[in-house]
Every structure is written in structure tokens, then in C-alpha cells.
Amino acid sequence: MKTNKTKLNDKVNFVAPKLNKDKLKKYMMGSKDRQGFLPMLIKYILLIGIGFVYLYPLLYMISTSLMSLDDLLDASIKWIPSQFYMGNYKNAFKVMNFWNSLKDSLILAGLPTLLQVATCAVIGYGFARFEFRGKKIMLAILIFSFILPAQVTMMPTYVLFTNLKLIGTLHAFNLPALLGQGIKAQIFILIFYQFFKQVPQALIEAAHIDGAGYFRSFFRISLPSAAPAILVVFLFSIVWYWNESYLTTLFISGKGTSSANAWTSLVVELKNFESIYEQYNQGSQQQLGNINESIKMAGTMLSILPLLLMYVFLQKYFVESIDRTGITGE
User: Fold this and answer.
1) CB 72 within 8 A of CB 290
2) Separation of alpha carbons 67 and 80, rounded Å
3) Alpha-carbon dihedral sign for residues 19, 23, 25, 27
4) Strand pairing partners for 35?
5) What pLDDT, on a 0 to 100 scale, did the predictor assign at position 330?
6) Is the pTM of this model over 0.85?
């Protein structure tokens, strides 16, 4: 009886807590020291949305490449295959002659990239450290040549390379890279130019007082501090050379000319994937069956797989380098 009376008194004395509007507003909108729930929610929604837009093609490619023909024909299967079917990768691996194409890709993209990094660093240092007549005009020409569409200079370049007998050789990529005229070399020179301008002039002058010449101050002081710029230029350059299929076919493979050779790359093999697949089926005793979307996606995945692996290992340094070189525009 006493217990029931106590419970009744508790119910009578219970007062619902008042809603503190100020605390609720502070929790939702935040304060000077702390971000609120609503701004954080909007940020995460935007980041997830933008991330999904960028990742959607890659996720679709991975998902489709692992589907069997039965999964492709099954309308109920959209993203997750009934089983991880690796036959598409085996077929694409054979058709693209993966190891040979990978070796050619590494040579075609790696050599001009190394040359381009070295040359652009020297040119960028020269623009940043020395004053000479016509410097502004040369910088203006450099920027103008960057905004000039590559298609405009493609045919004159082809005629020039033909006269110099560069068509069908690796020199068609290596020589322009050595002279600071490789693919997108202008933007790499500007990256080094901007980075070397940030190196304190007093540091260079102190080296000169200690007896260091121009070359020694460049190799011993300026160049070691430019590691972030070197990494950024290296990654961008190798990606652009890696993905270049038209110039590789035109200048290196020499298709349709007397200098035609067997140089190829993973991207070139992907570009001609369907025709190569048909030729493989006709010329080989081991038939691969009809081509479908899953096999095409497997071939596409194989062509970008080395770049993805490289980015996974270098992502941390790449993001830091982008921040330090000021490419983000901050």
C-alpha cells in the first residue's frame, strides 16, 4: 500500500524537462569552437554524393567485370554478382597479351616521364632564379602553348617527325621530353617555376658565399627541397603518357607507314580490344566465346590496374605534395 502511494506521488511530482531552445540551436548550428550537426550533415552528404559520382564508373566496372554471362542476362542482378567469375579476366588477359603490353607501357610511359621530370625541373629553376631579356615573353609563349589544343599542332609535328625519321621509334616521345616539349610539359615547368620561387633567395646566396656554383646550389639545395613537386610531376606525367593511345599509335607504332612495328601498350590494346578479340578467336584453337560487356570491363580494368596500384601506394605522398606545391589553388 505504501509502495503504491510512493509511485503515485512520483507521477504527481514528475515534471517534463523544458526544451532548451538555445542548447538545441547550438547543437544544430554549432558555435565558434565546434561545428554543429546540421553543417556537418550537409558536408557529409555533399562529400558522399561527389565521391559516388567519381567512384560510380569504377564500381560499375569492377562489378560488371566479375559477372558471368548468366548474371548479365539476369535482370534481378544489378551490382553484386551471384558468384565472382574470373573467366572474363582470363580471356582479357590472353587477348591483350598482358605481360608484353605491360612491359611496353612501362617503357613508353616511364622513359619520357623521367626525362620530362629532369628537363622541366631545370627549365623551371631557370625561370624562377634568373632574370634575362625576353623572360616575360618566353613565359607568355609557354602559357599560350599550353592552352593551344594539341590537335592544332599534331599534323605539323607528324611531318617534322617524319623528316627527322623519328616515326616508329621511341625517340618520338623521348626527344620532345628531353627538350621540354613532352606531353603537358608546360604545366610541369610552371609547377617547378612556382615551387622554386618559394625557396628563400637568402639560402641560395649563402651557398654562393660558401663557394657553391649555380649547378651545385641547384643540385644540393634547390632540387632536394623540390621532392613534392617532383612527385606530382612524375605522377601526372606518367598517367598522361600511359593513357595516350592516339599519339602512341601515330608516332611510336607507326601504323600505316613503312616504319610500322610491334610497339603497343595496354591502352592501345584496349582501344582495339574487340577486333583483337575476334582475331584471337579466329586464329587460336582455344575459342574464347562471344565477347560481352563483362569481358570489355575486365579489359578496361586490366588497363588501369597498374596505375591504381601505384596510386594506392603513393596516395599519402601525392596528397601532401599537391598541398605543398599549391596546385589546389589555396
Assistant:
1) no
2) 8
3) negative
4) 30
5) 43
6) no
